[in-house]
Amino acid sequence: MALPLRDDERTHRMPWITLALIAANVLVFLFIQPAGFQGGGIQRPEDQNRFWQAQEQEQFVYRWGAVACEITTGKALAQDPKGCKESRDRPDDPPAGKSVALALFTAMFLHGNIEHLAGNMLFLWVFGSAVEDRLGRINYLGLYLLGGMLATLGYVAVNSRSPVPLVGASGAIAVAMGAYLVLLPRGRILTVIVTAAFQVVYIPAAVVLLLFFVTQFFTDPSQQVAWEAHAAGMIVGALAALVLGRIPAVRRRAREDAADAKLRAGTAF
Fold first, then answer.
1. CA-to-CA separations, 230 to 50, 240, 243, 247, 269, in angstroms, rounded
2. Exposed, middle or buried: residue 82 (CB in 10 Å: 0-12, 13-18, 19+)?
3. How far is C-alpha 55 from the geometric centre of its chain's CA atoms?
4. What is the pTM of this model?
5. Tell me: the pLDDT tens digits for 59-73?
6. Cα separation, 5 vs 192, whole angstroms
7. What is the pLDDT of residues 95-142, one digit of tens each?
8. Is 193 helix (H, G, I), strand (E, B) or coil?
9. Radius of gyration of the chain (CA)
């Protein structure tokens, strides 16, 4: 297992957009999502409070999560669209009046549990702050939001009939990771490697990110991880970075960063 902790890229501005995105995800999890997401689900069948929390949790995630067959058909589950396959996990009474288009956006700010949130926010901080610094705040925010929705559509393309809701920021974060791979391939990522031993070492960003991309295709289906959104997100982020990297301001920052890195490499005492 490999867990990135931080990169060694020197940023020139405070990454306010990345910080705002992290804050938004945390605040939504703590104050908008039902308490059942924080409690870890039903612990005992006889616990009535847990039962009602689980019911509220299910209704919430089906209302605000991105459901692939809803996006494919343009109809909410409550309308019983023919493009959705049957599933015993599907609620008997799905929420009515759902905006399928809005859910494509809101799903990026929801998380299934505290571990899901913590892991995503760590990856967002490690890779997002440097990409924001290179692209500029407006370009970065647009890339994150639009790219995140495209990453979800990548999942939908493979699972078009699925009635299972998709939640999480990982698709949008994968977009930032793909952009990092193109913009800063020579960066180094301080990474925790857990095998027979426990090591904390710097690894080239290109190695970390390419390994992440490749391993998505070998994800265990039982883990219920939307690897398709991760892979699609990285592709979207890489392609977008190739285009955005040609913007004069972005090219200027790249030259400044290269000069700064060369100066640091040549300084010795």
1. 32, 15, 20, 26, 43
2. exposed
3. 26
4. 0.91
5. 999 999 999 999 999
6. 7
7. 889 999 999 999 999 999 999 999 999 999 999 999 999 999 999 999
8. strand
9. 20
